[in-house]
Amino acid sequence: MRAFEDLVDEAATVDVSWSFDWLDGRATEERPPWGYARLLAERLGRVGSALDIDTGGGEIIAEAPRLPDRMAATEGWAPSVARARRLLGPRGVDVVAVEPGQPLPFPDGSFELVSSRHPVSPDWPEIARVLAADGTYFAQHVGPASAYALIEWFLGPSDRTGRDPQREAAAARAAGLRVVDLRTARCRMEFFDVGAVVYILRTCVWWVPGFTVDRYRERLARLDAHIRSHGSFVAHSTRTLIEATRS
């Protein structure tokens, strides 16, 4: 394995463009058993209108072989908005920039299907509002304490009670939705060198807010030693699959 300084210096300067290709061979993450992209593609092929919230760069929607006649997506991070427009624009998708926490810029009852993969913070009243009667919300959410073994390596012990699936289901019901499916999965993550950790923390900036190599160099060095001794650093992501309908 290359020297610690080489690994962290490279990862600190490489372009972070919301693509995880750079991590190939350096980190792995197990996927949930249900196959969200496939299930979403099936649903997109059966409706006439759909909205994808917090679409990121639009990669999941782009996997669907068929899109509805009316397809929209929202995203709050400017680089991802630009990426999604490049990827989805040629397929007729209307990609709209929406700041987190702001209302969705669509009339009531606009969409038969609303989806989201890893939304920042599901706004259940807004989701219910833009769903048509008998419409469906289908999403994969980040679950409780996701990647916390890694996060707590840098930040210390933290509250692990957020993003509880049962609380999310209760909030969906309070907004007038009927939850028809709720599943959870715990997925193994492995990092095979410290550079991979630096890259992921530069990409998922909300995991360790204010992260820089200089600020956390001592803890990175200890993590590097752990990986060299154990072969990898292991954490676990958690995911929730939720499907809810509006009557």
TrEMBL record:
Q: What region holds the Methyltransferase type domain?
A: 51-136
Q: Which domain of life is it from?
A: Bacteria
Which InterPro entries does this chain map to?
A: 23S_rRNA_MeTrnsfrase_RlmA, Methyltransf_11, SAM-dependent_MTases_sf
Can you say what this protein is called? Methyltransferase type 11 domain-containing protein
Source organism per UniProt = Asanoa siamensis
